[in-house]
Amino acid sequence: MNREYQWFSALLCYPEAELLEALPEFQTALGQWPLPAAQKATLQSFLDYLGSRSLIELQQTYVNTFDRNRSHAMYIFEHVYGEDRGRGMAMVDLLEEYKSEGFSLNSNELPDYLPVLLEFFAQIDAEKARRLLGDAVHVIAHIGNKLEANGSPYAALMRGITAMSPVAPQPLIEPPVRDMDEAMETFGPDVSGTEPLLKPAVDTVKFYPKDAYRAAQGV
User: Fold this and answer.
1) Residue 75, strand partner residues
2) Residues 6+ apart with CB under 8 A from 122
3) Distance CA 27, CA 18 (A)
4) Per the UniProt entry, what is one GO biological process (predicted)?
5) CB 104 within 8 A of CB 125
6) What is the pLDDT of residues 171-212, one digit of tens each?
7) Beta carbons within 8 Å of 209's beta carbon, 6+ residues apart
8) Rounded (5°) CA angle 13-156-36
């Protein structure tokens, strides 16, 4: 099991009392993690933040950071596709990837929710997890940059995840805007009733469709 991914996944979830009670365990895990001093200090700053605030303050900050600011949303495909119908197709592909590894979602979260994705990485082969992280890291770094620009302590976690990637992150292009009502009318709703019904067209997950973006830029 790749426990580093679980470490980040848990800390990116909505803070509950259990999280604060487990801070000594997070501290111990960080202390045993062979990281460069600067990187470890950055992650330590986040644990210090959790330990120096009340639970209600942490919860309010979390809601203001992630639920009320879409630029910080932890839904990977939202930053890539926006409301374009490609988002639904990417979601189907990711669900198929989960199923291929025997991983099923037991929550109401979408498969591209970052804490869920990190938990998935923790359960699969380490090399495959690194490859998938290398594809998703461009979006993770993008979210981290937004968080850092707004002075959020959660930027430290995004930087930590980015540092685990085997490839350097590339900048994102603003996702295309598409009328979701039009897409729903054309394709019909999926089983959740929230996304257009689409069928998977590729066999692998594409967190970051670089070729399409290069084509759009005329590169």
Assistant:
1) 113
2) 1, 2, 3, 4, 5, 6, 9, 129
3) 15
4) chaperone-mediated protein complex assembly
5) no
6) 877 555 444 444 444 444 444 444 443 333 333 455 554 443
7) 80, 86
8) 125
pLDDT of residue 130: 94
Encoded tokens for 131: 């490859």
| Residue length of the chain | 219
- C-alpha distances in angstroms, 88 versus 57, 82, 94, 187? 35, 10, 10, 11
Name 189's bridge partners.
196
Q: Name the pTM for this structure.
A: 0.79
- Is residue 105 within 8 Å of 143, Cβ to Cβ? no
Q: Cβ contacts of residue 145 below 8 Å, gap of 6+? A: 155
For residue 191, what is the DSSP state?
Answer: T
| Residue 6 identity (one-letter amino acid) | Q
Distance CA 217, CA 153 (A): 34
Contact (Cβ atoms closer than 8 angstroms) between residue 3 and residue 122: yes
